[in-house]
Design goal:
Helix content is 53%, strand content 13%. The chain is an alpha/beta fold. It folds into three domains: 103 residues, Orthogonal Bundle (Helix Hairpins); 119 residues, Rossmann fold (3-Layer(aba) Sandwich), CATH 3.40.50; 75 residues, Regulator of K+ conductance, C-terminal domain (Alpha-Beta Plaits).
Length: 342
């Protein structure tokens, strides 16, 4: 049998209390007869339910029926009050304990994270980010000031959520910003995103910051404040419409790659670290595709501005090179083992 929730228990207890109260008023009025006014009956019901014992407004010692009713009503009153008090106490204690234990568990899980991502906000843009991180098996923490949004999102997505104000330094620290790889800022105003950009950059100078820009005029200011990139949903939407018009086959191909759930493929990047097993090897020697299943499409040499598209097999892989791949999350992890990122 499914247990009764605390909220439902409170509703039931208050309903019972109301019914017992009406029974008390009606009973005292009925058994008291014409001598008892409505106020007298109401008063007797209140002092009986509350067990304060101020004394009877009328003498009922000569009325056996009234005495029997009063005795039975006292017993019902004691049970009703106990039920109401226990229900309210249970609701408060269970709710507080659940929140406390949930918070501690979440903090413990966040403390274990490293190179994870932080998402500030839960609007439609943020929800798309979250879904993509889930599909690509990335660790993330969501910060949202409105509890109802957290509850709604956590019911459909498995992840770590903080109900708090992301503009506060201590909240970003509790989300593990000092060990995070990147932070997404998707709050409803450019001012809020700009403020968090400055805060995030001061707390972790090496973190990558990607910000949603609402007003195009504010993009340069957000970049100057420390954001690595500013993305305008309006601009992206316009570009998508143009692509749908002039290159529909390409758009369909990308959509299929992004929306496929059985086999998730993405254009990913992996940096070759110092001391990696691939450092100094040619592509022919590395055999990345054979070992991992990833398709190498380009190399950003030394992390600079130049790209070597469709590199030949004689191309040597060097430290700081960025490998651009089309790969599944599992294949990316395999590649990272050879590049020193595992």
């Amino acid at each position: 049998m499914k247990p009764i929730s605390s909220k439902r228990r409170i509703f039931i207890s208050l309903t019972v209390f109301f019914v017992v109260f009406l029974v008390g008023v009606s009973g005292f009025k009925f058994f008291g007869g014409k001598e008892w006014s409505f106020i007298d009956s109401l008063y007797m019901t209140v002092i009986t339910l509350s067990t304060v014992g101020y004394g009877e407004v009328k003498d009922i010692s000569a009325n056996p029926a009234a005495r029997i009713f009063a005795s039975v009503f006292i017993l019902f009153s004691l049970g009703t009050i106990a039920f109401v008090v226990s229900s309210v106490t249970s609701f408060i204690v269970e709710g507080e304990m659940k929140n406390l234990l949930g918070r501690r568990k979440m903090e413990k899980e966040i403390s274990k994270l490293k190179n994870h991502y932080i998402i500030c906000g839960t609007d439609e843009t943020a929800q798309t980010i979250i879904q993509e991180l889930v599909l690509t098996q990335k660790d993330f923490v969501v910060i949202e000031p409105l509890k109802e949004k957290i509850d709604k999102l956590s019911a459909s997505v498995k992840g770590l959520f903080i109900h708090d104000d992301p503009t506060e330094d201590n909240v970003l620290v509790s989300a593990g910003i000092k060990k995070a790889k990147g932070i997404f800022l998707s709050l409803p105003t450019d001012e809020a995103n700009l403020f968090i950009t400055i805060t995030a950059r001061s707390l972790n100078p090496d973190i990558r910051i990607v910000t949603k820009g609402i007003d195009v005029k504010s993009h340069s200011k957000i970049i100057k404040a420390g954001s690595d990139a500013v993305v305008s949903p309006t601009f992206i939407g316009g570009m998508r419409m143009v692509s749908e018009m002039i290159r529909p086959a390409v758009v369909t191909f990308l959509d299929m790659m992004l929306r496929e759930r059985k086999k998730v493929l993405r254009v990913e990047e992996v940096v070759v670290k110092k001391g990696a097993s691939l450092d100094g090897k040619t592509l022919e020697e590395a055999r990345i595709g054979e070992k991992t299943g990833a398709l190498l499409v380009a190399i950003q040499k030394g992390g600079g501005k130049d790209y070597d598209f469709n590199p030949v097999k004689e191309t040597a892989i060097q430290e700081k090179d960025v490998l651009i791949l089309i790969a599944s999350p599992e294949s990316v992890k395999q590649v990272e083992k050879f590049t020193g990122g595992g």
